[in-house]
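Sequence in, structure out. Go.
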Amino acid sequence: MLIDPRHLEQLSVIVDVGTLQEAAKQIGTSQPALSRMISTLERRIGMPLFARTSRPLKPTPIGNELSNQGRAIRTARLRAVEFVDFGARGFFGVLKIGAPPFLCAKLVAEALASFVPERPLIRVDLIPDYYTGLQERMFQNQIDLIIVPGRFVNPNNAELIVEPLYSDLNVIVGRVDHPLLQKNRIDISDLQDATWIGHPERSVLRSDMEESLKLVGVQSVRFAFQSESAGAVVELLRSTDFLTVLPRHAIKIGDQSGLAVLPFDLPNPDQVVSMISVIEREENKLMADFKAHMRAHVAAHVTA
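Output:
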């Protein structure tokens, strides 16, 4: 037996307001049309929906139960409309973002901290990885947007949308009270004698670090530790005299962070950090809103 869900919705309104006249006003139909609906539904189920002598209308047990079902249908329909509206306005959905570990830990995480709370119905998956892995997962539709240094990104790639965010430099980082910060001038021998924290070999930062140190005259680098975890690297930097090379805007600097940039310029060109997505994939409102939010965050906190 099939029952029209619209009839159940109408029945719930009748039960709620108690009269056909008032229900017709709320639904936007006529009183005779509701009378016909009740008769049709009663014939279909073979039982009365209302006690005939009761004013206001009093539902029978089956009428009351079916009105409950109609109320649930109405609630679900209105909720569905709400979700569609939220989605159209960028307040509903799932957004998958990828970035290298240090960009995840600071830049992207800080931008998300002011983006997500305003959209309680969205979910953001933040995936830390390096450029090659991130790009592969993006082409496999596992990531919507990646935020990466653009050294190996071809801006003329017809498959990608590449939007530059800001330029960054690699710097030497240590703890705020590192002994080398007490020196008037840091020599190559100081860097040669230092113990370093490395980055995984598949990280672009690893090759950039080794190349820049070699260019300034550091012939061999002694690594005591390496990790893909940005948190682990930062904690080792705070707690030891180890040094490492990191993008300037990928970490917090100052007394509160416990980290400082050593006054030694590395011979590396500016690296442009960009947002990258696949051109054939339609950009929804949630993605467009996050891109705009990221641009505003960079303007306020990185390039300001």
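Check: The mean pLDDT is 88. DSSP finds ten helices and twelve strands in the chain.
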